[in-house]
Amino acid sequence: MLIHWDFSEEQLRSFDKELIEAFAGEMIRAKRLGHHIISISRRTASWIINSLEISNFTRVQLEIMSREYTQTGNLRKQASIYLEIAPFAHDFEVSQANRVDMSINCTMKHNVFAKSNIIVENIDNDGWFIDFVFQGVRSLSRLPKPAMHFLHGGGGDILRVLKYECEQKSIVCAFMDSDKKAPSSHMDQKVQDPVRICSDAAWPLSFVEATPCHEIENFLPFSVVSDLAKHDSADSIKIIQGIIEHERLNSTENEQLYWRWFDIKNGFTEACHKHLGENAINWHCEKIDTVHNGQIRYIKGFGEFLIQRSARDNKVKSALIKALNSREWIEEFREFFLRIGWIFAAQKAKFT
User: Fold this and answer.
1) Architecture of the domain defined by 117-216+334-341
2) Is the pTM of this model over 0.85?
């Protein structure tokens, strides 16, 4: 996360000098470890250099950050969320949509300088894919390189882990499947519960991000899934291909695209109907009937292991990179990943 510190001389003089020196040291350490983007204004760095008895190492690091401030300070205009170090005595305020103001004491006594945590339902699958997107999608390159500490929240553990991290006052984001079955579906209870935990904790650096699609597998482009499953799911591929082509010809809005809400693992089958509301069933049926004129009722799913198969096959990974950089995928999902990426934005670690 971007952590910005800009105090006037008067504000700096109001604090104990040892506290300011210790805080500057923590900021420097977080930057060098590559945990966050640390932005210290020129006037703040200059006062510390000229007014405190600091080590040569600290002086050099502050001089570097002072020179970098033109770039790091301007990142506030781009960031979807950032932390502003504030001169007040209380803990924190949420003063505007993309900014959290936090006191020096609150920042120092909690786990804010540690690497930001992301809780996922499956580290091997979800964790790999999230990292793959940030590494491989070129349009995300203007986003500072994310530094994420993955935590396992599968098997119902996500609420327990999220509550614990909120209690520890860490920067934490629960990344979840929305499980929405259609564009108009309500958010699932399993997403509402983590939101409630964050609200009850009243910790402003806790976040819940649900996929803007049915689940994480829906980020996989259809071209990649159809190639992976061409030998055992030919019928499903043909049906869905027809729907996708019809949507493309009719310039269907991204929010209404069938692949976005199709249950890729389980499909749209009679057995799945009991998990769908009437509106979702009607939406799926209308999508299918518009193209296939009532001749198709159900579509089989593609199984559980699409992400695992993608991760271990270099040829598939190459095709996936190409597809993720397509205009269609970027228009559909880029803004979502840009938004969550700022929670984990960091500078490259330096170990010398």
Assistant:
1) 3-Layer(aba) Sandwich (3.40)
2) yes
